[in-house]
Design brief:
Layout (H helix, E strand, L loop, with lengths): L8 H18 L5 H17 L2 H25 L3 H17 L3 H17 L11 H6 L12 H8 L5 E4 L6 E6 L2 E7 L9 E8 L2 E6 L6
Parallel strand pairs: 3-5
Antiparallel strand pairs: 1-2, 1-4, 2-3, 4-5
Length: 213
């Protein structure tokens, strides 16, 4: 086993490891980011842990990483992301030899995870996320002009939720049912809503606040 010579190197190893691993999950780089991220994070854990604890802590780290990505791409309610962040923080902080190195490692997670979002502006998104979320748009070239026009007409109209919106659910607008999503807000069943935005077949709704007397 080897060790990092300075506490601040924990920030570098964990930060770069988190940056590239989340980047690998978000964009298609043919595994290059995955290899780089795994290399950096492996060096960090091997520097301070014996083999038995190495596998435990790195497993906790990756579980946390996956939970954050799942929440961000599918659920958007913050629950899994919070649990995932705690897992990652626990894994790197408990693996460090002192509180200074642990603090550097936690900061590395925060900065590395945040900076990974910039990869979305440079590289192509992974197709699997497009298929699993409501981000898939139906273009006119594919023959969906009539459907798009119908959905666009919903903007500004009001309706009622048929299910709880967490944040995805079913709404009824002018006697027709639609799958819709809120902007991260939870809305209870049988609540009045209005359509704020339509993108392809993605309908974004918000709660209608009652007029104050």
């Amino acid at each position: 086993m080897f060790s990092l010579s300075a506490d601040w190197l924990s920030f570098v190893m964990v930060g770069l490891g988190t940056l590239f691993l989340i980047g690998e999950l978000l964009v298609n780089t043919k595994g290059i980011f995955g290899v780089l991220g795994l290399g950096f994070i492996t060096i960090y854990f091997l520097s301070y842990l014996d083999p038995s604890m190495f596998f435990v802590m790195i497993l906790i780290y990756f579980i946390g990483l996956i939970l954050i990505v799942i929440d961000g791409k599918l659920l958007n309610d913050g629950t899994l992301a919070t649990i995932g962040a705690v897992c990652m923080v626990v894994s790197v902080s408990f693996s460090s030899p002192n509180w200074t190195a642990g603090l550097y490692a936690v900061i590395g997670i925060i900065i590395g995870g945040s900076c990974s979002l910039f990869f979305l502006k440079v590289f192509k998104r992974r197709n699997m996320w497009t298929r699993l979320t409501l981000m898939d748009q139906l273009s006119g070239e594919k023959g969906y002009n009539t459907m798009n026009a119908t959905y666009k007409e919903l903007i500004g109209k009001q309706g009622i939720t048929l299910t709880d919106m967490r944040p995805i659910g079913t709404v009824n607008i002018e006697d027709a049912n639609y799958s819709a999503i809120t902007n991260g807000q939870w809305i209870a069943q049988s609540t009045n809503i209005k359509v704020d935005y339509v993108d392809g077949t993605k309908i974004l709704v918000s709660k209608v606040e009652s007029d104050k007397q």
